[in-house]
Write a structure and sequence with these properties.
single chain, 105 residues, Translation Initiation Factor IF3, four-stranded mixed β-sheet, two-stranded antiparallel sheet, 2 helices, globular
């Protein structure tokens, strides 16, 4: 019985990994863009996003990890006054850097 409970708990944690980070009100006004889209925008700074790349011993999926890192960067960019983020690095050990820009609407 304990094994079933432990296995069920582990599956619940793994499947719920993408809901750990919610977009804040500030982050809601920030979108993901490309380097071409921000060519005429003002650079505000850099956002460093970090999350767990694995849960216990299970490697998290790349898509879920990317979504979570993007949410974190959007939240940080919103507090910095930016409205567009652009990835500046690849995901490495659950970390990724984003450029933060303020672009005209």
């Amino acid at each position: 019985m304990n094994r079933i409970f432990l296995l069920s708990s582990l599956i619940f944690v793994i499947t719920g990994c993408n809901s750990w980070v919610q977009v804040t009100d500030e982050g809601d006004s920030v979108r993901l863009g490309t380097s071409q889209e921000v060519a005429n925008c003002q650079r505000v700074g850099r956002a460093q996003a970090q999350t767990l790349s694995r849960v216990i011993v299970v490697e998290r999926g790349g898509e879920r990890l990317q979504e979570e890192l993007t949410r974190l960067a959007r939240n940080e960019a919103g507090t910095m006054g930016g409205n567009v983020i652009v990835p500046e690095s690849v995901i490495e050990e659950g970390r990724q850097s984003f450029g933060v820009y303020r672009c005209p609407n």
